[in-house]
Structures are given as C-alpha cells and as structure tokens.
C-alpha cells in the first residue's frame, strides 16, 4: 500500500488524501468520527491513517457520509465489521442511496464513452484496481437524528447540497472554520485539466444544474478552509471558491 497523505489541518481535524480521493478523520479525546472512507481498496489506507492517529476502528463512533458513491463509501463494509458500534449517518435520501435502494452513479459505459479525454485512461485503470466496480452497499446507513450540529467530534453541521447525488451532504465545522465539501465542490481531479475550485466533469453528477445551484448554499458559510472530496485542501472561504467556479463558467 502506498501510504496516503495525512495532514492535520485544524485541531482534531485530519485530512487524508490518496491520489484518487480524500476523506477526513475528526478526533476529540478518544472519540473518532470518519467522514467518507475511500474506495474498497482504500481499507488499508483508512486503517493506516487511524493507526497514525493512535486510533483503532473499534473506537469509531460515527461515520458521516457526503454521498454514497463507491469512492466515498467503498471501504465501509469491511471497516464496519470491525466497528460494531459505529453509526453511519447522512441525509435521509443519501442513507437510502447508501443502502442501495437506488443508485445514482456514472456507469462503466459512461466512463468508457469518455476514455478519449485526457486523464481518463490512467484514472480508469487506477480506480478499477481500487475496486470501482465492486457492488458496495451500507445497510447500516441512517438519516441524521435531527437538524443542527451532530453530537460527534467537531460538532459538524450537515448542509444538504443535492445535485452531485440527490442526498449529497456537506459538513460545516464552525469551530474549526472548515467546510467539508465532498463532491459538491472539488479542487482538482485526475480527469480535470485545471487546479483550483471547480465542479467535477458533467458525467459524474446525477443532476449538474442542481449541483451548480447548490453552490449558493455553500457560499454564505463562514469558513476559511475547504476540505474537498477530490484535490488538495485550500485556505479559501466558500464564497471565494464559489466565485472562482462561477467565474470559470465563462
Ligand atoms: Zn467522488
């Protein structure tokens, strides 16, 4: 396993990057919350990052899901078998997605149709190895207990941002001044030719127009640090990042 990049970006906020996807580990005392969990093949990297932070899977109290694509929930089925007490929380719609009551994800055919594009062949090979074609479902996924901040490390506040998927959810960490944007806003992707705040290529969105509109929900949030699902973390406010994305629309 190539170790992922593990960066402490704020007190109790640890950002983990592989070449293909990111996740975040929130810690407070002995409590651990995982936000997203990479591809199925990223399980060793998830365990490695937990170990580096002196934690074990058994200590995970909650897993927060931004959205139920295979690159964000892939390691969960095997990880959760070692974390019997962990609750898996997301929006009501995305919980159903994670349980695979429906599926909103680019198909292998969608990806194959884009193989001529720069970046796609090597990225496709990489994600196939990471288990992109595995049928991943998380029966344990459930809706947040109620509105407002979650009673887990970092007190994340869910921000429903439908578009990339119908129940996509970002997480605002008011105390850390950070925003976990999932795939509602990313800062790079192996199939993108530009760096900086951007939307993923069209084929990855369930509803691209809604994904674009959802940026309005992020822009007003007070934060100075963006932790995206893909690409490096950026010291920018959501308003600044959204302005860049909108500027890039021409
Ligand atoms: Zn993703």
Automatic annotation (TrEMBL):
Instruction: Note the Gene3D superfamilies from the entry.
Output: Ribonuclease Z/Hydroxyacylglutathione hydrolase-like (3.60.15.10)
Q: Which InterPro entries match?
A: Metallo-B-lactamas (IPR001279), NDM-1-like (IPR050855), RibonucZ/Hydroxyglut_hydro (IPR036866)
Say which domain of life the source belongs to. Answer: Bacteria
Q: Report the PANTHER family cross-referenced here.
A: METALLO-BETA-LACTAMASE DOMAIN-CONTAINING (PTHR42951), METALLO-BETA-LACTAMASE SUPERFAMILY PROTEIN (PTHR42951:SF14)
Alphabetical list of SMART domains matching this protein: Lactamase_B
Name of one Pfam family that matches: Lactamase_B
This one is known as MBL fold metallo-hydrolase
Give all residue intervals belonging to the Metallo-beta-lactamase domain: 20-230
